[in-house]
Amino acid sequence: MPPVTNIKLTDITLEYNSFVDSQVLTAKQLNNIVEFFEDQQRLTRTCLIGVGLVCGLSFKGDANGITIGKGCGVTTDGDLLYMPETTYKNFRAYDNSLIKYPPFYPMGTDAAQMALWELVTPDDKGAFPVDSFALTNFKSKAGKELTEMYGLLYLEYYSKDPDACTAIDCDNQGRKQVAKPKVLLIAQADMNQIIEQTGSEVIYDDIYKKYFNAYNAYFDAPVLAAKRVFFNTQTTASSSALTAAFSKIANDGAGGLSSAVQTLYNTFKFALDPQSVYPITGIVANINTTLSKATAPMQAQYLYDFYKDLLTGYNELRAILSDIIYQCCPNIYAFPKHIMLGALNITPTAKPTPYRHKFYASPAISANKDKLNIAINLLDRLNVMSSGFTLPPSPVVKITPSTDNSKPLEARAIPFYYGKPIDLAQKWSYSRWLQGTDKLILGYNAGAYSPANDMVVNPLAYSIDSNNFFRIEGHIGKKYTEAIAAVDKIRQDSNLPFDVVAIRLGDVTLSDINIDDYACQFNDLEATLRAFQAEQNCLYSDVSKFFSSFDTKTGYVLADEIKAQAAQQQLSFANEAQATDTVTADAGATKVRMAAAKIVETADAIPGARMQVTSDLAINKSISNILINGGINAVDNNINVAKDSVGSYLDQIRRQGGAVSISDYADAAGKAIDTSATGSYEQAIAVDIPVRVIAGTRNISQWLPNRLVDIDDDTITNFSARVDDLCNEVKSASVKSRQIFAKADYVRKGYEDDYELQLWRLSENCCAGQALAVILKEIQDRKAKLLAQLTFSAYAANHTGLEHLAGVPAGGTFVMVYATTMTTPSPTIPPNTLSLDDRLKALQTNPQFVKGFASDADAMTFIAQNSNFEDITAAVKFYQVQSPRKFTPTIEADVISKTRALAIDLGKSRAVAANPDVPEDIVFADFCLPYMCCSDCPPVAFIMPKPQVGLSLPKAVACSDEGLLQFKVSPADGVIKASAGFETTVVTKDAITYFDTTKVKDGAFGQQIKFTVNDQPTDCTITVFKHPAVKPAASISDTTQFAVFIQLTATTNQAAGDTFAYTWTMPDGQVHANLTTPDDNITFQYADLRAKFPDGKLTFTLSANNHDCTDSEQVSITVEIPEEPVDLQLAASEVCSDEGNINFTAVQPATGIITSKIAGDAVKLLGSQWVVDPSKGPYDVSINDFMVNGKPVPACMLIIHEHPQASFDYKVTMDNEKGAATVTLTNKTPNPGSFKFTWTFDDGTTSNEVNTVKVFDMRQFPRGRNTVITLTAVNGKFEKCRAVFTPTPPVALPPITTTPVLTHLPPETTTPVVTKVPPVVTTPPTGTTVPPVITVRDTPAVTPTPTVDPSVIKTSTTVTPAATPKTDPAVTPVAPKIASKIIKKDPGTTDPGTVK
Length: 1396
Description:
Layout: H1 27-49, E1 50-55, E2 59-62, E3 65-68, E4 71-74, E5 80-83, E6 86-88, E7 90-93, E8 117-120, E9 133-134, H2 138-142, E10 149-160, E11 176-187, H3 188-195, H4 206-218, H5 239-267, H6 269-272, H7 280-292, H8 300-320, E12 338-343, E13 359-361, H9 368-386, E14 398-402, H10 421-428, H11 430-435, H12 446-449, H13 454-457, E15 469-473, H14 480-494, E16 499-505, H15 523-547, H16 559-589, H17 602-605, H18 633-636, H19 646-656, H20 662-672, H21 680-702, H22 713-741, H23 752-764, H24 768-790, H25 792-798, E17 807-809, E18 813-819, H26 836-842, H27 847-851, H28 856-866, H29 872-882, H30 889-914, E19 923-929, E20 950-952, E21 957-959, E22 964-966, E23 968-970, E24 976-978, E25 986-989, E26 992-996, E27 1008-1013, E28 1016-1025, E29 1030-1039, E30 1043-1052, E31 1061-1065, E32 1071-1075, E33 1080-1085, H31 1086-1092, E34 1097-1106, E35 1109-1118, E36 1127-1130, E37 1134-1136, E38 1142-1148, E39 1154-1155, E40 1163-1166, E41 1169-1172, E42 1182-1183, E43 1187-1188, E44 1191-1192, E45 1198-1201, E46 1208-1215, E47 1220-1227, E48 1235-1241, E49 1246-1247, ...
Parallel strand pairs: 16-18, 21-28, 37-45
Antiparallel strand pairs: 1-4, 1-13, 2-3, 3-6, 4-5, 7-8, 7-9, 8-11, 10-11, 10-12, 14-15, 15-17, 18-19, 20-23, 22-26, 24-27, 25-26, 27-28, 29-30, 30-33, 31-32, 31-34, 34-35, 36-38, 38-41, 39-43, 40-41, 42-45, 43-44, 46-47, 47-50, 48-49, 48-52, 51-54, 52-53
């Protein structure tokens, strides 16, 4: 194999030279710079960004052309390979002998390169390399199909030596570094050679290999789920069957889970455990051991939960491993100069593409390193979980807020069956561990890892807003009464939103149902029975009192004695009644709250029973003085025992005993009562009939049931028989009494009508037995329906959403299942010993078989339990013969089929019942429903109405300082109570009840207070808010020259939890509103205070508002206002006198009056603007005595400089002989001593004299000419003040002539043209004397006064040039007009003939 060369990152340049001036640079120094930064770029790509195929570079095509899609990649040597979309149609054999890239050479060889085929493109002229072939010839040349080849993007990287110099040319610029991307086709075997390491081979692709293998195997790792337990006759047959169903799922799943964990670990071991230190063998062994071992019934569901936890942990680990690819400082020898592209036309899938690099990102730009850390933590958690399954020996019942199973395991509470809570809490949630809140994770054993944090130890005392599930643990193994009481107490105390019921597993018959245990299901029937009792007792007591009051001597009624006797017995009967109520209450208190489904709406079940039971119990008002007692006492306690009364004898007979039937009492009375002196009519009416009636009523009362549980067939049979006996007596007595009363010789005694009325009342009660039968029938029906709900199998069938989740969702129902010892059903007669007829007749021993069972289900159960299997069909038919129940053929077939199935199940359950695996009444399983169900009874049809109550207050929202608010209450004497915590707010004063707002204290404000009247809830509510109390304060916190800072604060009664809104109203009307604290500040400018608050007194108002409860207070502070400063600023500090008014740009105070003794009247107010008029000086004097309102402002100064008004006169004399024109210039500028002057002539000469003489040589201009003379005047103290004067037209120099020429005409006054536009020069045409337009400013016009001195005019014999106009000596020449001009300063330019 060739040596490894051209790998740049094998030798990283770590230094380079910095250069200095005039240094001689060597090639090494320059190369070091290039190499240093190139290496840094390479390291940046590989270590900070990533390596591999970044994007694009699709590899598609066929023999007609192969297209490489646009894309790029980074090699592990840091080369950035970019390819535009390129289509290749030709190929050729590739020779790498120049470079000898090691992967292209099998191990042990240096010359034998593997077969490589390069894809080539045409050159600029469209010509392909001569050694290339069309792809259509690939198989014939390469010996393989294109589809067998794989693409490789290779960077040909080498140094090229320079060309040698010739004798006439040398363009040697050094070695050239070549980097050419090549697309190569490689066979699969050769590609494997490139990837795999052979022997000590240096370059091999460990990056691709480990990730490809891992993610190729990843998709074979299963996603696991726990099976569910379904409820059927097999699983609900016994506690062992039910629990075995759960443990079996865990046992069966142990192997698959442990294998999946081992496989997943092996697949990603290179990332999860590169050092091979992880105890994976222990994890797998623990999973197998724990899940596979035999489990006690009361541990089965916990084992199932543990199994589900492990599955969730495994699935979460699998999910996070789906994308953990990243490379930190990748191996530079993995693919240093190439990128694998894969096979042609491969469609990408979730699984990795063979022989195609992915992008292996750096952790600097990828979150995959964090994902790997999470995965490692999940593996750690799985390790702790698998080794920690332990059940506490004597757990207490706890409810822990959690989240449902749709959330990750880390979001749920830690279950109680983990024995290493401290270790597990650290690994339960990686994110919580990162945040340092792992000790705040909730769990059954939270006290072990966070004992001092009440929020963790007692989570139900804190917010449960984020919890939608409640883990309930510690109840398994407890008696169901204890368990349900413990769970219910926590539920009630913590106001948790779920319901709880207990269901037993096993056979249940109607006789197993104790009405007392399910009292709420029978409350309406209990009320119906009491109403029936009251009616019967009322009748019997009334009859007993009436018929026992006859005088056996006279036949009259002992009316007076009735009242006396009633009064005498009042106290004793009342005490008995009280004792009876106490017993009833105690019995009710001992009832155990049981689970019961809503069987029937009683309003639908007994429409005729809708009656109100009042305190009068439907007693006839006319006999309300008669005492009513239940049962036989209603008769015995109302018998009149006055002397000689029938009642006195009956009482004696009762006390003596022995008399039972009506005949017994009649015989005994006949012996005891002396009727010898009583008439036959009176004996019959006052003795015989009363004795038999009272005896009959007494016998009936003995069988009148006191409670529902007393109603059975025997009771109804005996009660009905006694009623029939009495009715026969009453019928006979009615006939006999009417006959006697109709006798002519009968003496009426006044009670005859009442006598017949009482007998009629008894005759109307002859159907009382049927009423009891109806009640019994309803009881049996309800028991049957309740029976269908009490067994777990029936409950599960009726509630298909039942699931075991180790707790209950918010708003759901928690169902505990407890065991019962199942009675072994066995036939009443041994089989095969009797004939079929005898076996069927034996079923008649149960009265229900003859009368008809309450439900078909009861009948089927009875037949299945008490018949041979082969007798079931005959038994069902026999039941229809013996009982009123008749089936249609279809129903009969269904009943027979169901009875047979039931018999089979009962046969299976017998063997189980013989050895109960869970003690009786012990909770061994739990389930839940996603809705509230069945723990409360349906509404009772019989309502004890309470008086309507009403309550109101003057307002629903009040402030704490409002004091007493009077209630309006109905009834007037109603007792008003406030909701818990506000009891003291209801006060009574002068027999009037008030709500006292002052009794509401901090911490309770803002809560809605509710009220009851006579313990009945009302709609009356009030919310009290604290009335704010503020005491504001103001102080000066700081001052400056121009402003004062005021700090505002206050002391208030605001406490924690109060939400006051503060508003400060400032003295100037500003409002700072909705402040959460009373602290504020404001700044006042002294200027504003002088204008608005000259005395400095500032008054602030603070208002505090709390839901319309407001307090406002003022505070004042006096600020010392400093004397107002004065200030002046001028637009300029030094000006020329012609610049116009100079504005004061700042005047303080704005209304101040400005004066200056130096400037005098030059300071003036124009409208609202103060100015200085510089036109009249004073000149060159510092005006520094400006004052505002008489206060000096020394910083404001102004100097005015006089602006020159340049002008001059001139006189021209001509010396014809010498050919010289002399111009005498006289300076006419005012105050010439104040200025410097410059005369400028158009021949380039100048003069700085005040007045000057200029001689012009006219010999060059014999015909004369015009000359431009300019005078510049400058104020030497301020050179910006300057003026330039040039007369127009120019000075005319006369020609050389002998003829006198007038060269200077008298002046003619002209009016100057004044304008404000920029200077514009209009040059008159040649030969004209039209003066130009002069742009002037405020300088007064100065007109030069040229003069003509005839004495200096000389004649000349020289011929005047033709161009010179001739002059008539007789004509007086007209002097040219010279316009008056105002000279404007312009130091920048000078334009001859233009006055500036």
